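Work Package 3 (structural annotation) set out to generate three-dimensional models for the target panel prioritized at the project kickoff. During this period the team completed the workflow that converts sequence records into discrete structure tokens, so that structures can be stored uniformly alongside our sequence database. As a representative example, we reproduce one entry of 161 residues exactly as it appears in the project archive.
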Amino acid sequence: MDERDVRLLKAISDLGTGSPERLHEETDIPVSTIHYRLNNLREAGILENDLYDIDLEAVGLGVTVLVQLSTDYHGSHHDFEEKIVDVEGVSQAYFTMGETDFVVIAHLPDRESVERLITDLETIDEVRGTNSTFVVSTLRHSTRALENYDLETLLSELTSE
């Protein structure tokens, strides 16, 4: 990636859009160049999709729960990780190191759904136990990690020049 790519990615994160016209206004990169670079970033797998943020509370998914899973598995975690991500309501799942083997984040409509989620996770054969934490208030919910950095930091850390 070069400086223009990083500037485009940062602008996409800040603006929440991939609109070439809006990106041009933010970066002064010509619109035709933006089209070209966006296509290249998609082909490289750096851009995965279009951005449509949803207010989860407004649609009725205002209960956020973090669940730590302790497991007892033989072989590779890949053999059963699909069971975890297939549980309804799981929006993020991470394989971790330390006392916790997996961390799951779910956005749910109510407490009954939390109980169902925990039950579904605990019925997975390899899961030994769960530790759940309810989110009381959200301090930051960013799906675009680049918006949390200064452009100068990104340029110095990510460009290959």
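Helices lie at 3-15, 20-27, 31-43, 81-85, 111-122, 151-158.
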